[in-house]
Amino acid sequence: MTFRNFKMVDYVVYGRGAFNQLNEILAPQRKDDAPMIFFVDHYFENDAAFLARIPLLGKDKVVYIDVTHEPKTTYVDALRDDLKDEFGTISGIIGIGGGSVMDMTKAVSLMMTNPGSSADYQGWDLVKFPGVYKAGIPTISGTGAEVSRTTVLTGPVRKLGMNSDFTPFDQILLDPELCKTVPVNQRFYTAMDCFIHCVESLTGTYLNAFSKAYGEKAQDMCEEIFLHRSDWDEESDEKLMMASYAGGMSIAYSQVGVAHAVSYGLSYVLGTKHGIGNCIVFDKLEEFYPEGVAKFKEMVKLHNIEIPQGITKGLTDADFEKMIDVSLGLVPLWENALGKNWQEQMSRERLRKLYEQF
Ligand code: NAD
Ligand code: ZN
């Protein structure tokens, strides 16, 4: 097919306080006495007031998701095994947290009904059966994981998503109030994932009017809150949540670019997390994205954010080679960024010089 026919999220509810409607939203999805499982970011483990708002019924269970490291296929498989052992069948999984929890929720939902290991499904359209009901409730904005058709997992041989029509959520609940406790630096790193998605999509060769419409709006909203003001209020959280949604929609029909291709290499070898990794890389990409990087640097300064430096110092040749392999393997990203003849422009030597700057 020439034009992608993409599956989107089925239901969306947006609004400050919308979390209070969760019980009502879930009621029709409950199957007899099969429980709903709530995957909750471990940040909330000690927040009794928030936990009391989760609408638990019958055998429902809260599972805290450890997001110290980005989601791994082994973690997905282990949670799936635990749920099957304890309950047999479940009504669904509700993910409450950041991009990591969104991805864990999508992946475990799919693995409840697909045999084998999640590592078997890293790639495009390998998932065979719809998962159990899944809902995403972001508590930090920027990744666009709430709308995407992928779930990024680190497996035994690759860091790659389970991209499929079965991957998008059945329901998302966007309540900006849930983001009020995000620390300033983390908020910036994850928000810049959205800003960078927009720059990469809007300057890419895959761009069309669909992507442009969402990408421009998302980038504008990021700039309204980070480039044109240095303070933060409720409206900023509201705008950032919608920027994340629109940024994700922009990517659905296009692709990310150099910053993502390069930061995946860092992440694979050094475990650098996605948001901060993108910032470390984007900071040095003037030659590819002059306007976007100039704005990024202004936002970093205005919000007093620290971008780590020198993280590849002391790495071995083998480490650099691995990072280069991982990065150059992401063909669609390079092609979107640099065009069909990207290989003539991005040699291993040039990429090595870039990695040495971080
Ligand atoms: P994250 O999910 O790792 O969360 C970042 C930190 O913020 C964590 O320490 C978390 O505990 C904390 N946190 C979350 N909500 C909070 C709140 N309300 N108050 C206080 N702390 C809170 O980070 P992220 O940047 O949201 O997501 C990154 C992940 O998303 C990566 O694994 C990346 O691969 C994935 N990702 C997926 C897609 C996709 O389309 N599926 C797209 C981009 C990124
Ligand atoms: Zn990203």
TrEMBL record:
**One Pfam family per UniProt:** Fe-ADH
Keyword entries, A-Z: Oxidoreductase
Boundaries of each Alcohol dehydrogenase iron-type/glycerol dehydrogenase GldA domain copy?
12-176
> Per its record, what are the GO molecular function terms?
alcohol dehydrogenase (NAD+) activity; metal ion binding
SUPFAM superfamilies referenced in this protein's UniProt entry, alphabetically: Dehydroquinate synthase-like
Q: Which InterPro entries does the annotation name?
A: ADH_Fe/GldA (IPR001670), ADH_Fe_C (IPR056798), Alcohol_dehydrogenase_Fe (IPR039697)
Task: List residues of the Fe-containing alcohol dehydrogenase-like C-terminal domain.
Answer: 189-291
Protein name according to UniProt: Iron-containing alcohol dehydrogenase
